Structure formats: structure tokens, C-alpha cells
Amino acid sequence: MAHKPTHPVTRAAFGVGALVAIAVLANWLVAITPIGSRGYDFTENKLHTLSDGTRAIVAELDTPVVIRYYASRNTAYMPEALKLHMRRVDELLKEYGALSKGKLRIDELDPQPDTDAEDSANLDGINGQRMDDQNLYFGLAVSCLDRTSVIPFLDPNEETMLEYHLSKAIAEVTTPTKPVIGVMSALQLGGKPAQMPGQRPEQPWVIYQQLQQSFQVKDLGMTPTTIDPKEIKVLLLFHPAGITPEAEFAVDQYLLGGGTVVACLDAFSVAAQRTGGAGNPMMGGGGGIPTSSTLPTLLGAWGMSFESTQVIADPTYMTTMQGQDGRPTDAVAILTLSQKAMPQKDSIVTKDLESIMMLLPGAFTQTGGAGVAVTSLVRSSLQAGFVDSTRASTLDPSLSTSLRPKGTAFDLVTHLSGTFKTAFPNGKPGDPPAAPKADADKKPQVGELPAEAKKEAPKPAWLKEAVAPGNVFLIGDVDAFYDPFAYRMQNFGGMQMASPINGNAPLLFNLLDAAAGSKYLIGSRSRAATRRPFTVIKDMEAEFNKTAGADIAKSEARQQELAKQVNALQTKKSQSSDAKLSAETKAKIRELRKEQVAVSQVIREKQKDLRRQKDRLAGNLTLLDVAIMPSLVILFGLGLFIKRRSATRAR
Fold it and tell me: In CATH, what is the architecture of 43-173?
């Protein structure tokens, strides 16, 4: 029996069905494999790409890390902004998981009332946010072994810092002990006992106490012989006044070993003057702690110079202070620096600082030649110049008129990074110079062994060049972290409470957190926001308000005036019994209402013009979105068709 042929339409339907099934199956197979989580990021600021620092932190995980992600999803009370941000967090955590190769486990939990998930959130210190009598959760806890770091609330306003905070939390829990910070300072940061009976001891600086809470602080004194970068995570040089060449050499070798140095220098330290018994700053302090500090040998090798004999004055950022006569005076050398003075808008060190205050600071200038990258974090304006430190310390009002700007912006806080070279090419100061190499061509004397038989001279025990990239942060002021200028001290029941009064302390802690948390967090940048402003639309609205806004405001004012007149006439009409007067009032009301309608039409037409411009822009963008890809496909097809046809004709 002959088999009945299948109808072409039926065959086509089966073919289409087979293709759909293959596509669905292929998508499913790809989705469950690591390939499915890969993609290409064509956004301008690489919004969907993890930074190199994050990739390095996740790649070095050798112990499983668990992220407990608490999000109230099954609720109608979650604000729309949080829902959008929740999707972004979902995507980011998926990227972390795909990158970790199984070392990072993400547990998604929805803490409903009276559930194990809610108990887990409370144990992690995530208590939720009260909204419309509902307890909404949106936070996470990162755990590794017995260490936990918590982000109690994932604020949409902190979207740009999300990756940094998450990577920092992972770095914290995978570090078994507190990072060690070595401190070298000529000041008594830890306080000192009473000098005489009945005298009160000097209390530790608040910032030093806070350092002890966050890190393991090791006081190295001012004359360390060696500093081990494997032990000391960050070396803090805090007003190293009178530092010796031998101590500078120890710092140099620490940096060449891959260490991180934070150097707080000063041209005139009020803290040193008050606590160290310093005298004339130009004479080195008169036997007490010198009021100025620098690194005379190291800075030159790092391609920087520091003005330590004069302070920087800047009328753009001057601060109004109380003068010696009790009257307000403009202190041009006491600088209140806003975000305008912080050029790196995406730096995690300065991003969230509203302002910092520097008192009689010195300034850094790049001299070059060190072969390292220099990033200015805080700098003066072009109106800055140098003034006498003694006159500046007395708030001399004449400095405002005698200041001669240099026309240059000076660095007040800067970051150096790269492969450094030694500042001591001849070795440790005080050591005898190395013996010259034996001449191989020189004939041995009678009874002398040949040069080949002599024992090779040992290699120098010091480094000439860095074995690992290093980082240096330079800050041109010490007083910015002194208690009276950084904190507000309050007494509660006999207990002293300190609260920051500016961004000075957060500046130092942001820097130390990045440097001590992980070497991959140093110099990290905040991500660009996924919510992009419609700048073209905003520009159109601004131009509209500029050109038509005044006319609309006049029309609206006239409309309100007409409404008042109509209301007054209506009242007069209702109170009048004269028919003739009533007819005249009606006629006047009709005229006023006609004018009201005309004014309303003028306002609507102007607003319609703006809407038409917006609609035209939206239509053009939609046309581009819809037409560009089909056009490219058509052009590709035509090109392929022409090529094949030419090849066919050639045969």
C-alpha cells in the first residue's frame, strides 16, 4: 500500500514546532550551565561588570562563604524604588556566585512573621524597616566560619557603593584576625601619665581610641629598625617630626616590600604646640615637639615635595573664625573644603564626605620622576598661595589682602601607587659602603687564591626596588584629626561621648578601611548608578522655563487676578437687587471669563509645545530602537545576497 505523502503545510508546522522545541531546550541547557551566566556588558560605565578588585577577592577565596540575603518579596507594601533596587541586588549577587566557582553560597530568605527566616534575620542583627505597620526586610549577612559582617539595610541611595560594601564584607570575614596598623608619631596619641602628683593624666586622642576598636594598633615608636609588611598591614606616620634617616630607611624598605603607608604631615601643628610644649615653629619647636613635620628623603624619591615652612591659604575655602578681639574674622589658612575640592567623584575615600576642615595645612607638589601613579583626592583652588605660618596661627586678618595666589591647585590629600624604587641607593644610612667587586682579570699575588675561588660577596640585605606594588597616602595636616577640631565632646552621666563634627575622621577611616581590608580594595571606585538622569529632557525643561516660564508665570498671575474679580462680582451680583446693575455685572463676568479662557489657552499652548518636543524626542528614540537592528540585518542580508550572486555569475 502506497504511503500518502504529507502535506507541505503539515511538514512546515512540524518543522517550526521542532525549531521552537530545540530553541527552548537549548536555552534551558545553557541556563543551567556556567555559560548561561556570561554576557557582554555594552553599558557606558560597565554597570553589569564586577571590578578587578572584586574579582581578585572572590578568586582568592579558600574557605566557603555564605551570604544570607533577606528580602521581603511577598508583600504589597514594598515601595517601588526598593523593588527596582532589589532586582539590581539579585543580579549583582548572581554575578558574585557565578564568579566564585562554588566558594560563595547565596541563601535567599523571605522573613515572614513567625518563621525561621525571621528568627535568622534577628540573630544576624537585621531587624527590618517598619512601613505601613509591616516589618520589611532588605539586608544581608556575610559569614565565614565564626565571623559575620552585616549590611542591615540595602539603601537604594547607596547603590553606587553596593559592590564595594559587599566586597569589603567578604574581605573582612575571610580575614581571621584584626588587621595590624603600625603607628609612628612624635605626638602622644595614646595619652601620657601625670607629670606631677595631683596633675591629671593626658587622655588618649579620640581617633586613636577608635583605631584601637577597629584595628590591632602597634606603637612602633619613632626609631624602628625594621618593619615587616607581612605583619603590619598599614603603616601610619602621624606627624613624624624629627624623623631620623635610619627610620626613613625602615619605612622605605617596608614600602618596597609591598606595604601601604599613610603619612599625615604638617606645616604647623596646633596639636604639637598645645601638647608638646613647642616654641617658635621656625626654630624647631624650642625643645618641645616640632610643629612641622616632613619626610625629607622619602618624598623626593616618591616624586613629591612638601612645603613645611609655610602654610597654604585659600580664600575660596577660608573659614570664618572668632579673632583675638572676639570679632569674626576670615581665616584664609583654615580651610573648610567641600566636595568641590575633591576631584575624584567616584573615590570611596571621599565620595560621601560633605566637607573636611584643615587647620594651617601644608601642601604637596608633584616633582615627577618616580614612575608611580598620582591621584589627587583633595586639593586647593587656583586662588591658593603660601603664607607665613606664625601670622596664620594668630589669625592675622591682613593675610587676606597680602596673599599672592600662585595660580596653581595644590594637593592636600593625594594617593601614590605603583612599583616604587628605594630612596637609599647606597643602603642603610650609617652602614659602611659595599666593598668593590674583585677584578676577574687581575692576576693573583703569590699565595693568593684566584678570583673564581674566592667566596662570592653576599647580596645586599636591603631592597633597591619594590618586590610588590605599594601604596602611599599623603595628608597635609595633622590637626584635622585633633579632638577639638574633629569631634564634639559631650558628657553624659560622667561619660565622655565624642561625635564627629565634620568629615575629617571619616576621611582617615575610609582610607584605612580600604587599605587594611584588602589590598584589592585600595583605590577602589564606586560604581555608576543604574538610574540614569534624563539630561536631555532636563535641559529641554530648563530652556523652556527660561524662555516661556516668565510668560506662563505672568499668565497664571493674571488668571488668579481674574478669578478674584469674578468672585467679587459674583458676590456683588448676589447682594444687589437692582436689575440694571445685575445685567451689567453679568456682562462683566462674561468678559472676565472669556479672558480667563484666553489666558488658559495661552498657558496650555506653551505647555503643549514642551510636550511636543518631548514626544518628538521619544518618537525619534523609539524609531532608532525599533529600526536600527532590522536595518542592520537587512543590510547584512543584502550584502550576503550580492556576494553570492557575484560568485554565481563568476562560475
Answer: 3-Layer(aba) Sandwich (3.40)
